[in-house]
């Protein structure tokens, strides 16, 4: 029973990280109809930036801030310099573009910082508290992701920028005619998404940083996003928690080697029942 | 919804009545022509192996099996329009089938091992294809991504049977004794790999010229229209997946045969992504594109290593040079050069042909009498 409780808490905390990564994918998908396969690479570069800053200054929180800033900048640059050029063409182009960026940035990280593992500090202690089987590190992950999700909800629902973002995503032409600067709004969306991705990276990386560290996490993140339906931010949050708790049980009771396959199994079962995710709505396809 | 990453082959609707007035130069049936071309190619490669050194034999063999894997991906992505990020996983299936068969049933001949590998790959393809047949675009890519990362972990979980992270090691006979004076072991293996690959390519080329290929292109170009025209969309998509997985599995079997090992680390996510990169670099839509892609995979890696050695750069730079190059190439191709190498070559060929004839024949009219 004790193991069950502690696995559940661990799963929820991990799920928060997957949910954050899924959220960043969903924001980009909502705005530009592109799944950003380069997201783990952007987060990786952000984490390496933090690593360098922490080494130089000794302050974790300075590193954290620099990671989020680097993530935002990378997202903005990707949208402005690259994605905009393939935006009007088929979805396959965008997929291949972001995959290319993933390969290139991951390789670049290996070139600059080496393929070996570096130690990477967690934001807070990873030892469990006495009263409940959850550590300050896990609490921090949960709280920060919850805060980000709430802020995102407020932004979308109650601010002019959020209104413009929704307008630009739903009807770009009409939004442009009503005076929304669609290009700028899309760039803002990419920047926000990439900042959240960097946060997910900072939470997922400890204790060891290497160029491939985010591969598995990204698989879980994309599973979370796909599970909830790529169109729905709340779906990504729910999907992240489902994946996190499910994988925690698999890892605890069956074997940690099988977690990725378990993610695949969850994905296949859910998607074969609902091919566009748990929270999808029916769409009309034109011939 | 034809992709603007332009493919060389015409869209399915225009495929049947193309060039109505051209003289019928098709004296031989398609299969016979493909077989003749494969025999010629095998002879050329055999001749090539006598001209180059033993290190090159391994590289030639590597080009062969990567060509097969990329060609299988071509059927899936180029012809049927499904994106798979998980083809390394099918190579994993083929390699481990080979290793297990050789270790536990040494009496099975090599051809039998290869057939078993194809069967195992097709089975995996049926399972994955059927499970993902209703998924589209990013959803399919996400599921196959999980497959690419997850499947090699099986070797760690069943470490007694599959050897854990060290993988399986086995010994295979090299050159048969009758030919031992003539061919070295590596030369023999390179020829066996290429014989296998060319046989599979003949099957692939013939399939994609026939009804299956036409159906796949129709499904790719417009799924709803294809369904209304009576094409079984789901079955066509699964068939494409099965053919493609069988090719990748056979490629994995060739790799295991060549190296005498099967390790989980050689079937990483980077491999799956590199295969897709090679496909796009070579050019979507033609099996020739797969050849340019496979050549690029092997020789760019070698060139990167030599360049890093020459400049005295560390191993971390040398190891990462090929993926960085491929990544940058993907970005450049998608933004600036959508037809890939094969498209560029064809355009060159078309230009020179046009310069030679004084009055270039006008392009066939875009609206032809369909169904004639």
Automatic annotation (TrEMBL), chain A:
<protein>
    <submittedName>
        <fullName>Branched-chain amino acid ABC transporter permease</fullName>
    </submittedName>
</protein>
<dbReference type="Pfam" id="PF02653">
    <property type="entry name" value="BPD_transp_2"/>
</dbReference>
<feature type="transmembrane region" description="Helical">
    <location>
        <begin position="36"/>
        <end position="54"/>
    </location>
</feature>
<feature type="transmembrane region" description="Helical">
    <location>
        <begin position="60"/>
        <end position="82"/>
    </location>
</feature>
<dbReference type="GO" id="GO:0006865">
    <property type="term" value="P:amino acid transport"/>
</dbReference>
<feature type="transmembrane region" description="Helical">
    <location>
        <begin position="208"/>
        <end position="227"/>
    </location>
</feature>
<comment type="similarity">
    <text>Belongs to the binding-protein-dependent transport system permease family. LivHM subfamily.</text>
</comment>
<feature type="transmembrane region" description="Helical">
    <location>
        <begin position="260"/>
        <end position="279"/>
    </location>
</feature>
<keyword id="KW-0812">Transmembrane</keyword>
<dbReference type="GO" id="GO:0005886">
    <property type="term" value="C:plasma membrane"/>
</dbReference>
<feature type="transmembrane region" description="Helical">
    <location>
        <begin position="94"/>
        <end position="116"/>
    </location>
</feature>
<dbReference type="GO" id="GO:0022857">
    <property type="term" value="F:transmembrane transporter activity"/>
</dbReference>
<keyword id="KW-0813">Transport</keyword>
<feature type="transmembrane region" description="Helical">
    <location>
        <begin position="139"/>
        <end position="158"/>
    </location>
</feature>
<keyword id="KW-0472">Membrane</keyword>
<feature type="transmembrane region" description="Helical">
    <location>
        <begin position="234"/>
        <end position="254"/>
    </location>
</feature>
<keyword id="KW-1003">Cell membrane</keyword>
<dbReference type="InterPro" id="IPR001851">
    <property type="entry name" value="ABC_transp_permease"/>
</dbReference>
<feature type="transmembrane region" description="Helical">
    <location>
        <begin position="12"/>
        <end position="29"/>
    </location>
</feature>
<dbReference type="InterPro" id="IPR052157">
    <property type="entry name" value="BCAA_transport_permease"/>
</dbReference>
<keyword id="KW-0029">Amino-acid transport</keyword>
<feature type="transmembrane region" description="Helical">
    <location>
        <begin position="179"/>
        <end position="202"/>
    </location>
</feature>
<keyword id="KW-1133">Transmembrane helix</keyword>
């Amino acid at each position: 029973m004790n193991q069950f409780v502690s696995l559940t808490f661990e799963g929820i905390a991990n799920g928060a990280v997957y949910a954050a990564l899924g959220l960043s994918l969903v924001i980009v998908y909502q705005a530009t109809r592109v799944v950003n396969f380069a997201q783990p690479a952007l987060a990786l570069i952000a984490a390496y930036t933090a690593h360098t800053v922490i080494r130089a200054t000794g302050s974790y929180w300075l590193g954290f801030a620099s990671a989020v800033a680097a993530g935002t900048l990378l997202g903005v640059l990707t949208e402005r310099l690259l994605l905009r050029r393939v935006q009007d063409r088929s979805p396959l182009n965008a997929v291949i573009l972001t995959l290319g960026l993933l390969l290139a940035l991951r390789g670049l990280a290996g070139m600059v910082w080496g393929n070996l593992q570096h130690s990477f500090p967690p934001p807070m202690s990873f030892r469990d508290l006495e009263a409940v089987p959850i550590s300050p590190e896990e609490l921090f992950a949960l709280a920060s992701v919850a805060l980000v999700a709430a802020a995102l909800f407020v932004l979308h629902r109650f601010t002019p920028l959020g209104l413009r973002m929704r307008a630009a995503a739903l009807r770009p032409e009409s939004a442009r005619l009503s005076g929304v600067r669609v290009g700028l709004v899309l760039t803002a969306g990419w920047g926000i998404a990439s900042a959240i991705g960097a946060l997910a990276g900072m939470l997922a990386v400890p204790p060891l940083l290497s160029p491939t560290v985010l591969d598995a996490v990204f698989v879980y993140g994309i599973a979370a996003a796909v599970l909830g339906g790529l169109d729905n931010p709340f779906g990504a949050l729910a999907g992240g928690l489902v994946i996190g708790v499910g994988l925690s049980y698999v890892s605890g009771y069956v074997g940690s080697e099988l977690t990725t396959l378990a993610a695949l199994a969850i994905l296949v079962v859910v998607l074969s029942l609902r091919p566009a995710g748990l929270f999808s709505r029916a769409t009309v396809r034109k011939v | 919804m034809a992709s603007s990453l332009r493919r060389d082959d015409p869209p399915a609707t225009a495929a049947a009545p193309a060039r109505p007035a051209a003289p019928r130069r098709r004296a031989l049936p398609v299969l016979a022509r493909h077989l003749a071309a494969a025999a010629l190619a095998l002879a050329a490669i055999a001749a090539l192996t006598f001209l180059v050194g033993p290190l090159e034999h391994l590289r030639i063999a590597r080009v062969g099996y990567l060509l097969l894997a990329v060609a299988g991906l071509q059927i899936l992505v180029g012809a049927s329009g499904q994106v798979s990020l998980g083809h390394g996983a099918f190579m994993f299936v083929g390699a481990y089938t080979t290793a297990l068969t050789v270790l536990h049933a040494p009496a099975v001949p090599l051809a039998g091992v290869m057939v078993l590998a194809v069967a195992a790959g097709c089975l995996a393809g049926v399972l994955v294809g059927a499970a993902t047949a209703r998924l589209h675009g990013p959803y399919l890519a996400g599921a196959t991504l999980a497959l690419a990362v997850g499947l090699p972990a099986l070797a760690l979980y069943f470490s007694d049977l599959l050897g854990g992270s060290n993988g399986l090691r086995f010994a295979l006979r090299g050159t048969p004794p009758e030919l031992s004076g003539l061919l070295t072991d590596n030369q023999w293996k390179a020829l066996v790999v290429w014989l296998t690959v060319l046989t599979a390519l003949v099957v692939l080329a013939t399939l994609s010229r026939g009804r299956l290929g036409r159906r796949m292109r129709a499904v790719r170009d417009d799924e709803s229209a294809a369904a209304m025209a009576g094409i079984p969309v789901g079955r066509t998509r699964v068939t494409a997946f099965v053919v493609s997985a069988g090719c990748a599995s056979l490629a994995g079997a060739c790799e295991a045969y060549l190296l005498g090992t099967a390790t989980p680390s050689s079937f990483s996510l980077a491999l799956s992504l590199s295969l897709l990169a090679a496909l796009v670099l070579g050019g979507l839509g033609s099996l020739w594109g797969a050849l340019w892609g496979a050549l690029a995979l092997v020789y760019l890696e070698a060139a990167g290593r030599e360049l890093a050695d020459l400049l005295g750069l560390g191993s971390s730079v040398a190891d990462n040079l090929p993926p960085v190059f491929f990544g940058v190439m993907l970005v450049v191709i998608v933004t600036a050069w959508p037809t890939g190498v094969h498209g560029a070559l064809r355009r060159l060929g078309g230009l020179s042909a046009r310069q030679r004839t004084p009055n270039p024949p006008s392009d066939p009219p875009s609206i032809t009498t369909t169904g004639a």
